[in-house]
Amino acid sequence: MRYLRWVILPLWLAALYLALIWVPDERSLGVSYRIFYIHMGVAMSALIVLTVNFVISLLIVFMRGRREQLDHYAQATAEVGLLMTTATLASGMLWAKVAWGAYWTWDPRLTTTAILWFLYAGYLLLREAIDQPQKRIVYSAVYGLIVFIDVPIVYESVRWWSSIHPVVFTESGMNITPQMFIAVLFFFFAMILFSIDLIALRAKQQALREKLERLREKRLGDLGY
Amino acid sequence: MIRSAGWILWKDITLELRGRELLLPAGVFGLVIAMLYGFAFDPSKSGLHGMFPGLLWLGIFFASFLAVGRAFSIEADSAQQLLLAPIDRGALFVAKLALNVLLTLVLAAVMTPAFTVLLQTALPAEVGTFLVIEALGLVGFAAAGTAMGALAAQTRLRELLLPVLLLPFTSPLLLGVVSATSALYGPTPAAASSWIGLIAIFDVIFIVVPALLFEFLTEV
Amino acid sequence: MLEGRQLRLSIGSRAILRGIDVSLAPGDCLGLYGANGAGKSTLLSILSLQREPSSGRLRMFGEPARIDDLALRRRLGYLGHEPGVFLGLTGHENLVFYGRLYRLDRVHQRAEEALVRVGLSPFRHEAVRSYSAGMRQRLALARATLHRPEILLLDEPHQSLDPAGADLLDDEIREHCARGGAVIFASHEVDRGYRLATRLMVLRRGRVEWQAEQGAAGEDEFRHALGVALGVGAR
Fold it and tell me: Fewer C-beta within 10 Å: chain C N or C terminus?
């Protein structure tokens, strides 16, 4: 994990080069469409990270062992997922202003993504508000299972309902040129590796915090408090 | 389990009939909303009529919210004792769901006529369908409210957290009930049926999923 | 009847209980003392199956105690800081409601008997809202013992009771122990508790600071240990 960071930085730089310089301008949107690469990268990362959160929640609810460790990852994935969703919304809004003329429209994709943001914000608030650790682990996992309902809906929203949001992956293949795809791929890998790094860091931090508390406990106990 | 749920429901209804601690504030709040709408939007303008379904449902949701949020909190000081009793937590869930359905139905029964009068509009011609939409919509709201209320009651913030947990979930429901109601006012009332389907799906999901997961909340 | 080994509980970074051994045999009446925050209520909440310890073993009636064991809950009676009665219901209705949840037969008769026992019979059809704090506590006692529990867990039961009510409670406890039941109570009432308990335990910061069988330790020794735990007698 320690060496992951050395991969992420060059990957980011390469992705930026590809997206900002290497790929030609788009015909109608001009230079502004380049935000698409960032947007696509963070959006895919958000959905993947939140799916991982769902899997962890499943494990916590239905399997008994190692709940504490799993919970560290549940929190980390929810936080990073929310961060990526925020980045998705922010980049999308900037692009929408240029492409559609407004920061926000009540398009199905945008609406479901906004709901997604609120659901996971609620998830983190719920965690925050439960004091008992065992209770927090199980309750937030149960909530995590319920809120995940929206993730496939976000993904499918552009396919189910008439949406003005562009679709990249369709049944007949991809809607972008091979050159664009390469840049998307680079950005995606840069973002997903960055997410993984953040998650690992956050989970480790949680584990260390708990270890510190145990040590503090033990020390206080030794001192007779 | 059904028997215990029945007794808890009996207890809550008795308390409510004597104390009127849930319906009275929520009902008055609902009427205040109608009045404020009247001030904020000029009801004599025709544009308001297109907004009526949205205004009505938002009003009902916000007022119900007050009642639904309290359903678990009325146990706050004695929940300890209630949970010590040898009852399934499923029984508690069923009892609170039934209570919440009753509360929201009563609220809607008061608020719907008040809204139509104060906002100077009329109920759609197909009253039967309209009542079906109301009933299904309220069951869905009560089900989601019970599930999220059970979670919120376990937190330090209690009802304060409920809006954050509950309202995002109810957005598809709101979309469903408002669209269905609007369709009834429109040229093709039959269009409501597909929205009613969406509401029904929401109801089923929010009764079945929490009922399945409630089991796991008993462990801790 | 009850045996807890090395019960620990931490909430976040705070350790509330730091390894407590506790056991109850039929006829035992264990008095739990200590300063606020020493862990008395927390220990009682674990023993009454309201929460699980972070670690440690808890057995009741010869079997591991599981928090979701409904049959086991029927054999416990708990009285906490809150009376746990509904203000909008009458005393009688409160007892009938709890009797129903415990699936008791002849609930009305049992409720009447319990109300007579705690001296609330004249007020049985009045809403609990009109009861004084002491009356509510008496009703709570009737509620906690309505289903004839074998183990009675009482968290500061003397609180808000007048002397007559406290005597009534003590009689109830003695009778319960004489019948072969077990009682564990937390209290700040030194004299009353000393006379009542068959065993005394003083907690300090989540540990057992001192304990003794009644008779093995004199009242002075108990007072001294309690003083140390409370930080008043310590030099």
Answer: C
